């Protein structure tokens, strides 16, 4: 029994932050709720710093082996608050002065805490609790806008989340019955002699929860509706932060399963293939940039799952964590562009963005090409390491399929980039880069609309960060650990 | 020093793109200045290079966890191409500065070109597969922006997209191949020198040919060879003149350079086994390219298709060098040397031809050869330069093209006599093709879509003439170039024969 309250300082800071933000917000007039938001941001930053300071500590489990403190948890503790901070920044314009400004921040903090706990859970029961903590605030977050679309998004998310949560609990119960324990260390031993069919049922049921959080097939139905129905900042959070916790949680669970009894690698590879393929194919026909991004996050989950198909092999965890960090920053950058221009609801409306808002257009291009996996962005490095690890793990065919999918994805990302960057327009010859205005420009007033400055700033910062992270991948890889503890 | 050479244009590009208030003359001077410094830097690298191994090497860990490093260096294969890149980009900078009609949005155009120059220089200097790939992909993005942003014609955006998609498909195949090499090497590495020294996938059954297939498809799309060439004519037709020049002169060489630098030395066994495939693809490209060129009515499309033809010769030579049996080493060295000289020669000549085509467009608004006639009267200097470029392009002795093609055919004849004889027919058609084009444009009754105005302006003359002068210099005094290339070609041949 290790009871070390100090070992959980980053998580505790998130919890205290949620409570403190809620209390602060309750006593503040509506016009001054930004103070609560600032408090939430401060606590996220504090949690991030605490995690960075705690990271060099020894890898160990605490609280009777239920919570692991290792490289994977350390990474999640840094990536999740950093992503949540970006969400708060890009949301500034949208939530400022809103009646529910504080609620938004509290829900983000609680959702982040849930994601971190998912990543660190080393016990099936803690995993279930973390799942609930990572899910329930998000139902509210999806409906935060309080409009019909938001309600639909929240309801869809809720129904699917509850269904799959119960399935997950069923899986937990089955595995407990087979293994005689819920903490992973004991479970790994207990399951080695389990009957194959029961183990398969239990595993599949258990995986339902994390796959839902990750937005992977077959639990992906909520993603496009939630993304297009919820407010843009909430959508950015929904598609980014839970994935981080869920994929690390999946990685941990998978390494517990006895490979000689159950061939879970093939199962995961199949899930990865169907997730990336379905996400990409469905993204083709989208004309709403947010729905397009929603399907894009599904396909990204597919690439991330590749690392899980070779879980436990050399470099798999490291590449997964790198890809998660890269995905988080790039995806948030793309959402930040959408948040900066909330009135542009079709891809065609982005026409002329490059002329009027060159920085925003550049950020969009970098982030979308980043999601394709174009060097030198961070996602390219993530894909490269994940592909290499997968090939090295004996699944070259999976890498080939993923490369084909990357190619397919290029089409729809370009459908967004092309209008945004189009310099040409029919009619009179352009007069160079003059300031916008004049009669000829009236038709493009949408793309020239004043962007939300905070979201635009976040977009540019995220695009720069994806380039910096890409260039500094070597350094980051050195920081990441490849060991898990149980 | 090499890193400075590679990244100096990028630094200038960043300054240009961030500094909004820069006046147009300042942009011109910065662009021309940096482009002028680059050839000097490459010349300094060339003079201080003491072969035959890798010189000016920098090897820093970059992604130690992933086995990739920041490893750059030069040898006899990369130096000529670095020099070519610097020279062609200088020509484009000079060409685009010719005053009226001013280049649209000059500041961003210049920034884009400088950034593109970095990707090209970086690719030819890269000694690490991932670094190579990064520059390879970035060059695609840069060229896409050039065509989509500054291309002419209603189809520009579509052509740019086609170019992007085709070459990006290729790059993904390339990446798959690279990951295959990485996974097969022990210890895992992306370093080209290490992979060359100890090639993985030797005697490994199907894996070697499959990886070679992936890499070859990737490079073949970029080269481009038949049947992967379909992106080339629209991209060339709709790109701005300087863009076409860079695309044909430099970007196409990334494919052929990749064959010499990566495919042949790292997969020697698979290369030898399937060398005949490359010979056949080369010959088909050479003949197909020239025959389709013959059918073109547009001057620019015609030049574009001759690129397919000239790159076909390169592939023929490289394939012949892989057929170890039935030929001596000297012949194979000659073939590889010829292939590298052809890359340089084609870059110079095609660069000049595309800039000349741009002038044609500039004056008359069309590339259609039927719209023109008797141009030699009003534009004698233009006619003279075009004639020189055309003669250089058809491989007349005295120009670099002759040196290159002579070596390619002399080196390949012993190994693949039938294929070489077929490819030789290509030269014949090329000669007819260029002469016919000259005839249609410059002789006969004077005909022009609109009054052409003045002959070449100084900036136009200064951009095209040096390229042709360099071609002439190589044609008359090839020794200085061959002395650098030959040892490196010998190394490649030895590596393939392993």
Automatic annotation (TrEMBL), chain A:
From the UniProt record, list the reaction(s) this protein catalyses. a quinone + NADH + 5 H(+)(in) = a quinol + NAD(+) + 4 H(+)(out)
Q: Which GO terms describe its cellular component?
A: endomembrane system; plasma membrane
Instruction: Supply the PANTHER family for this chain.
Output: NADH DEHYDROGENASE (PTHR22773)
According to its UniProt entry, the function of this protein is described as: NDH-1 shuttles electrons from NADH, via FMN and iron-sulfur (Fe-S) centers, to quinones in the respiratory chain. The immediate electron acceptor for the enzyme in this species is believed to be a menaquinone. Couples the redox reaction to proton translocation (for every two electrons transferred, four hydrogen ions are translocated across the cytoplasmic membrane), and thus conserves the redox energy in a proton gradient.
UniProt protein name? NADH-quinone oxidoreductase subunit N
Q: Please name the GO terms that the record assigns under molecular function.
A: NADH dehydrogenase (quinone) (non-electrogenic) activity; NADH dehydrogenase (ubiquinone) activity; quinone binding
Stated family: Belongs to the complex I subunit 2 family.
Recall the taxonomic lineage recorded for the source organism.
Bacteria, Bacillati, Actinomycetota, Actinomycetes, Kitasatosporales
Which segments cross the bilayer? 6-28, 35-55, 75-92, 104-122, 128-145, 157-178, 198-223, 235-254, 266-285, 292-314, 320-341, 361-382, 394-414
UniProtKB/TrEMBL annotation, chain B:
Q: Does the keyword Ligase apply?
A: no
Q: Where in the cell is it found?
A: Endomembrane system; Membrane
Molecular function in Gene Ontology:
NADH dehydrogenase (ubiquinone) activity; NADH dehydrogenase activity; ubiquinone binding
Q: What is its EC number?
A: 1.6.5.-
Transport in keyword set: no
Gene Ontology cellular component? endomembrane system; membrane
Q: Which residues cross the membrane?
A: 77-97, 109-127, 133-151, 163-184, 204-221, 241-262, 274-295, 307-327, 339-361, 382-403, 415-438
Into which EC class is this enzyme placed? Answer: oxidoreductase
| Keywords attached to this entry | Membrane, Oxidoreductase, Transmembrane, Transmembrane helix
Task: Give the GO terms filed under biological process for this record.
Answer: ATP synthesis coupled electron transport; electron transport coupled proton transport
Q: Which residues form the NADH:quinone oxidoreductase/Mrp antiporter transmembrane domain?
A: 126-425
Q: How does it sit in the membrane?
A: Multi-pass membrane protein
Q: Please report which protein family the annotation says this sequence is part of.
A: Belongs to the complex I subunit 4 family.
The cross-references to PANTHER family, in alphabetical order and at most eight, read:
NADH-UBIQUINONE OXIDOREDUCTASE CHAIN 4
- Name the chain's protein: NADH-quinone oxidoreductase subunit M
- What organism does the UniProt record list as the source? Streptomyces taklimakanensis
